[in-house]
Amino acid sequence: SGKNYQFKVVLLGEGCVGKTSLMLRYVQDKFNEEHLSTIQAAFLKKKIRIGSNSVELAIWDTAGQERYHALGPIYYRASNGAFLVYDITDIDSFERIKSWVKELKTSLGNNCILCIVGNKSDLEKNRNVPIKEAEEYAKSVGAKHYSTSAKLNHGVNELFLDISKRMAEK
Ligand code: GTP
């Protein structure tokens, strides 16, 4: 019969890439056009079913601004999964996730499922991060690559469902 899983997942990435937006779209089905910088971190819970199993996700949204970087370990500690989020129109935000990946691998080893997330897919015409490069990078670090638009609600449910399945299978 069914199992009850409890997982912690964390959203990491530069300021303004859409971490808060992904969480609020997923948990509350809301989207805000304004950028309100996250201060430190916040978390929301969401329960889902996968077949006969139930999964309770604690989703931690962290602050992307560089001055909060040192707080990272407090929030990613003991995470079962991590979303490394970049903005497909911003190459610097893509470079930024590489340092998070290194840091997570050092701190959590292979215990944490890594998802590389190219957000703002609705802005395809302004894309600056070649999709192939992003996918190859993800593969090279043993992560999976996802494309999302928190704005249009594209790929968001799939992202959280997929990481939940992968954490449950671990
Ligand atoms: P910090 O809290 O500073 O780390 O930022 P964040 O990564 O949480 O970004 P946030 O969710 O606040 O979004 C930043 C800006 O990008 C806001 O103006 C959002 O409306 C916008 N945004 C987020 N997701 C999308 C998206 O999928 N498409 C578009 N076009 N804009 C988006």
UniProtKB/TrEMBL annotation:
Name of the protein in its database record: Ras-related protein Rab-21
Included stretch of the parent chain: 2 to 171 of 213
Record's keyword terms, sorted: GTP-binding, Lipoprotein, Membrane, Nucleotide-binding, Prenylation, Protein transport, Transport
Coiled-coil zones: none
GO MF entries: GTP binding; GTPase activity
Organism from which the protein derives: Brachionus calyciflorus
Localization annotation: Endomembrane system
Family to which the UniProt record says this protein belongs: Belongs to the small GTPase superfamily. Rab family.
One of the GO BP terms on file: Rab protein signal transduction
A cellular component annotation (GO) from this entry: endomembrane system
Membrane topology: Lipid-anchor
